[in-house]
Amino acid sequence: LLITNFIAFQAAAAGLSYVGGYVINTYKSYDNFLQDKYALLPAVIIICVAVVMFIIGLIGCCATFRESRVGLGLFLAIILVIFIAEVSAFVLGFVYREKVKTDVQGTMHSVFEKYNGQNPESTVVDYLQEQLRCCGVKNYSDWTTTQWFNSTGNNSVPLSCCRQDMKNCTGRLDQPQELNTRGCAAELESGLQSVISYAMLVILGFAIVKFFGMLSVCVLTCKREDSGYQPLYSG
Description:
Blueprint: H1 2-29, H2 41-66, H3 69-113, H4 120-132, H5 147-152, H6 184-222
Helix pairs in contact: 1-2, 1-6, 2-3, 3-6
């Protein structure tokens, strides 16, 4: 149990903090395409659990070393609460992983429609297409239905659609070999679902650690205190 407290719990706290921060940072990069702000809830729960784990891990070490039944009982209750929080975060992650597809498809068309090459939505769209190496919502031909495409009249898509290995790309549709032809919706959905799946696996792994930690505390708490000596009474 001491090993669990010193290594597993502190390592779990550090690992969960990293995962929670990674999920939040990824979400903020593409929050313009996500309607449901509660999708951050699993990541917030993860970070809160990590902070509590770091503090409680130190307390648990003291209680384990002293073999205090009251301290171990309190430690067991706290671990149980953390375990429930991690299970809740896992379930929420599963729910929001399935909602990502609907959320992305419901907003991406409207964001792309606002593209004019200068406004904030344009910056977001260009960033998305450059980072994910994609073009359009479903494919690069989606740009032909936008107001920006019709207003320019040069039969080209934004330069952010150009492949990175093409130095002289002009974005013209009659040169599709120079463009990223895959749609951004599928790429973004896949990326966000991968991040959530990664977070869920980490949460599940540390939840298993908590489960064995609870078993260890139960065994230590229920252990009979038998020193092998008999008390002496004076007559």
